[in-house]
Amino acid sequence: MNRWLLPEDIADVLPAEARKVETLRRAILDLYQSYGYELVAPPILEFLDSLLTGTGSDLNLQTFKLVDQLSGRTLGLRADITPQVARIDAHLLNRAGVTRLCYAGSVAHVRTPVGSSAREELQLGAEIYGCATWEADFEAISLLLKTLELAGLNKVYLDLSHAGILTGILDGQNLDKESVEALYDLLQSKDRPRLSQWATCLPVKTAQALLALTELNGPCTDVLAKAKKILPKHSAIDQALSDLERLLAAASNLSNGLELSIDLSDLRGYQYHSGVMFAAYVEKLPQPIARGGRYDHVGQAFGRPRPATGFSLDLLTLASLSPPYVRKLAIAAPWLDDDALNTVIAQLRSKGEIVIQVLAGTAIETAEYQCDRELVKQGNSWEVAPKK
User: Fold this and answer.
1) How far apart are CA 282 and CA 98, in angstroms?
2) DSSP assignment of 86-150, as one string?
3) 3-class DSSP state for residue 25?
4) What pLDDT, in 10s, does the model give residues 220-247?
5) How many CA atoms lie within 13 A of 273 on its CB side?
6) CA 183 to CA 196: how far, in whole Å?
7) CB atoms closer than 10 angstroms to residue 108
8) Which of 84, 206, 247, 377 could pair with 202 as two cysteines, CB 3.0-4.6 Å apart?
9) Of 293, 282, 33, which Cα lies nearest the Cα of 151?
């Protein structure tokens, strides 16, 4: 066995790409700070029952599990940071007003997610707690678009949905957890024949509404008008369509490169959404670059109901789609025991210059830097000169 081999769909991030990822991470977190978001760093390991609180079974299936030798309890290696941040808001910060939190950390999946090529991701996201109105959803979408713009992705396709529509359709049906999960899969795949067969145990109007969801996708104005006509009258459905209308009116002016659409059967996620849901797509990537939405019930699962909305994305994927990394210019310097030389090098580095020391007769091998200058001794002083 080759000891340097990694598990399937687990990869190293090499120097130039790692620097690109880190530079982007810093810029994005600085952007979030300018909006008033506070950075949190939850642990990568938690007791499993806490880690999965308020989430769906798909997150459970994607979570690595191990036994804590100190307590004997089962631990989970997180597959999503969002529930952890909800726990921090609910129990550690315990604030009454609006709280904005952001994060960036590694997550791992038991199986490679659909459309992805890696089981380990660097998840980055932003969450707003304590605001139940549409303005918080709008801020989350605005910040997501700013994030993508910062990475050089200006052409964005934003697909919206709303968990309240399915809630209204299924009101009073008392479906068990397994049935609801099967329904999610059928709606997501838009498998009308199987969905029709699955819905035979439901009232005719409910079954018809579920089938209608598979066709309610496309341009926003058309989908909303059609939904108002064919979906059953229910307060949750009416509220959901009203939420989408209001959000679309505001979001339509966010960016010239933004294209908006609606897909009311798109219910992907970890089954904890309770309101507006959105997915952002960019060119050259078949799956969404980011997902988000409202998940008011997760805080309730931690014993403290809190309105919540936000989004997350994989920073490694985002960096791979951003413009090519430009190598930084550096200064080559001899590796000598020379006090005057060391003083000059320290001064240059304090001014932001990159100085790479190299032994005589050896070459500088680097993917990140290009040495276009060098330190040469002229008389009794060291001077920066163009590299020969």
Assistant:
1) 31
2) HHIIIIII--SS-EEEEEEEEEE-SSPPTT-S-SEEEEEEEEEES--SHHHHHHHHHHHHHHHHH
3) helix
4) 999 999 999 999 999 999 999 999 999 9
5) 26
6) 11
7) 17
8) 206
9) 282
